[in-house]
Amino acid sequence: MYIYNTMTRKKELFVPQREGQVSMYACGPTVYNFFHIGNARPFIVFDTLRRYYEYRGYQVTFVQNFTDIDDKMIRRANEEGITVKELGDRFIQEYYKDADALGVKRATVNPRATEHIDDIIRLVQTLVDKGYAYPAPNGDVYYSVHSWPGYGKLSGQNIEDLENGARVDPSEQKRDPMDFALWKGQKPGEPAWPSPWGMGRPGWHIECSAMSMAILGTSFDIHAGGQDLIFPHHENEIAQSEAATGLPFARYWMHNGFINVDNQKMSKSLNNFFTVRDIAKEYDLDVVRLFMLSVQYRNPINFSRALIQQAAVALQRLRTALDRLQEAPVSETAAEDEQAFLDGLSGYKTRFNEAMDDDLNTADALGVLFDFARAANTFVSEPRTKAAIEQTKAAYGELLEVLGLMPRKKEEFPQEVLDLLEQRQAARKNKDYARADEIREQLKGLGYAIEDSRQGAKLKKL
Known about the structure:
By secondary structure, the protein is an alpha/beta fold. It has 16 helices and 15 strands.
């Protein structure tokens, strides 16, 4: 497989550090809110990469962190009158709900920054001891960017140019505008942990270095994230990690392209900011997954209602082919063309793999699946032997599964709950909204929520 390495700016043959094993770290969410569609893209893309490696026989250790301590979390927790931990616990569970609905497999490990404070402090102390970092009088500890000659190699940034545009907060006690905080001294109302520099908490960049190295070792295969993380986050991770260990941090760096909304940058000020939870009110989230995979991951992608609707139609085409294979008429004897069709199944797999091996080109891989779907529909338009149908279904389903588009087993609900849902639908049809709301509250009391969408009402466990 060839993947584009941001560090070298070219496609490179992927050779794992350990034969038959892949070690991956992808930057996860800061858990203070529901995640938005921009966050969803790397979650889906790098889940697909992980799935593909597993499909090709690799043992994958996939780490995706939760940042559960930072300024935004402290602010929101204070606004709500709860602890930062309570806020983090809540939104980690909300993350799992949305990620599950997007078909994102649970990571091998989902470390939380607050669970790795000792690792973080040890790493900061190493950098201080080696002269790459310095404590400030207020309890902060800063990384000295000029102390490490490799700074800027990932982003291709010139440190002098960066310095010209750097701003320094008056509360910071840096020696140089480009230096960044590894440890932040405690301020009033903030959670803090004891350290050699006094009570405080970790800076953002140091978290990922400490967590990834604690779980995957000082050097691992792939570090992944969105293009917005190349600088300063990943640049800073490299600087602090490689200064501490003297070893290459990650061997391949992968970054997905930006997402725009109606050809404009997504922002709250433009009122085009959507969380995945917002989209789920209208569409099955498998539609969002297919939409994200319809463009090769390094290219920008434009989100719009029209394009999501096209993705919904495309997903239905793929699912309809699977339904037809499951319901295909069975013949006791094989038709003349049956074996020729079966012999051609391997060709779809070969083409699919070629697309995925070319820097995870899911757009072309989807094209192969649509070709397969059309051929399968034609094949089962007349009776086929059970063995031929099963062989076709297995080959088709295998490729759907790699992209995370295989239908998942639907959650089963008690008959009492299904009866109430039916009564609510009848009430809404009759415009008896008071009764519909009453049933909604009744279901809530039983531990179920209703989400209304264009596809109808959906039940979810609370």
